[in-house]
Amino acid sequence: MAHSELIETLADLIRINSVNPAFDPAHSEAEVQRFVQDFFKARGIDVREQPVLPGRPNVIARLAGRNSARRFVFEAHCDTAGVEGMVVPPFDPQIRNGRVYGRGACDTKAGLAAMMLAVSDLKKSGQMPPGEVWAVSAVGEEHSFPGVLKLREGLQAAAAVVSEPTEMKMIVASKGCLRWRIIVRGKAAHSSKPHLGVNAIEHMARLVCLLQDHSGHLEQVKHPLVGSPTLNIGMIQGGTQVNIVPAACWIEVDRRLVPGEDPDKVLNEYGELFSGFRVSHPGSEVEMEPRALRDVPLETPADSAVVSCAAQVLKEMGLDSSSYGVPFGSDASKLSAVGIPSIILGPGSIEQAHTADEFVDTEQVEKAFVAYRQLMRMFE
């Protein structure tokens, strides 16, 4: 395969605005998914749409294998973060100094392009892989994961490789995430007589301090690959005007989970914490309102066939074949949660994802293509 075909395919993907509709309601993944589907059709590769949301399908390409019961899934998401504040043209890919610039360049259109070309190259070679190979372009990863959640419904697969920017290091563990809103309700009153009200902002300030103190114990929990759980208070809002005692205040919390933590137990722990707060702060009410995101951690055993095969491929390529963990989430944990051993492996650095000058090194994209192609040929 010529270097130019891989990089040109990546550039073509970047040219298509596929910002997640949560960040830009005027756009969706529809156009980029048509491009992906046409790519496979033009090469005689079996491809279909999987409806997810109106106008937002997954695209699944399939190569038959010697063992049709042994399915190997390669997945990358085609939606991107928003483009506000970018200092490079988001949809006019620039190729210079061994890098491709543009929105989605590393997160994750580089991985998607590498998977597409790996399937195409394997088809062209006439070599039938050991098992059935799927290449999936999934929607919605940047907001609430509808694509992979639909993909995994009834899915039977021996393993999965999910592309995220990992600098071509094999990731077998990642943190999960819980997000929820905490609402403190007080009682409104005129600011000239604040004693007649209950100031929800003041009570929230105390609750924030309680959360910070409580988070101190998280550092005692250590996972060998992903470290400790964390808690971040990312949003706050309260009150209506300065001369009214505020009757309500809310915050939104991001709690990162490490493998071994149970999401329900974590939420119950905070529920008990707030129950104690209500007792010690009479007059205020505290509510927990779970948000859309509930992402379980990923931890794929070291003796899994996909881990062993990927380690062998990376070693033969002269790359780092060790196993690592990352703090960010991905579609991999959703596949793992239904019993599909999954790893994360892709070109680019997570430090470039969502940035004002997002880019990926072309050398990394080429390595991803080689690694994916070899995995498709070797995994049994």
Structure description:
The protein is α+β, with helices and mostly antiparallel strands and 380 residues long. It folds into two domains: 3-174 and 297-378, 3-Layer(aba) Sandwich (Aminopeptidase), CATH 3.40.630.10; 176-295, Alpha-Beta Plaits (2-Layer Sandwich), CATH 3.30.70. It contains nine helices and 18 strands. The protein has helices at 3-15, 30-42, 105-125, 146-151, 200-214, 263-280, 305-316, 332-336, 362-378; strands spanning 46-53, 56-63, 67-77, 94-96, 99-101, 131-138, 159-162, 170-174, 176-185, 189-190, 230-238, 244-245, 248-257, 285-295, 298-299, 323-326, 342-344, 359-361. The strands form five sheets. The chain has a six-stranded mixed β-sheet. A four-stranded antiparallel β-sheet has the order 11-13-9-14. It has a three-stranded antiparallel β-sheet with strand order 4-5-18. The two termini are 24 Å apart.
Concise synopsis of the structure shown:
The chain has 380 residues and is α+β, with helices and mostly antiparallel strands.
**Helix fraction by DSSP (H/I, runs of at least 4):** 25-40%
Spatial strand order of the main sheet: 1-2-6-3-7-17
| Structural domain tally | 2
Order of helices and strands: HHEEEEEHEHEEEEHEEEHEEHEHEEH
Q: Give the count of helical stretches.
A: 9
CATH superfamily of the largest domain: Zn peptidases
What is the class of the largest domain in the CATH system? Alpha Beta
What's the overall geometry? elongated
CATH architecture type of the largest domain: 3-Layer(aba) Sandwich
Structural class: alpha+beta
Strand content: 25-35%
Stretches where pLDDT is under 50 for at least 5 consecutive residues are none
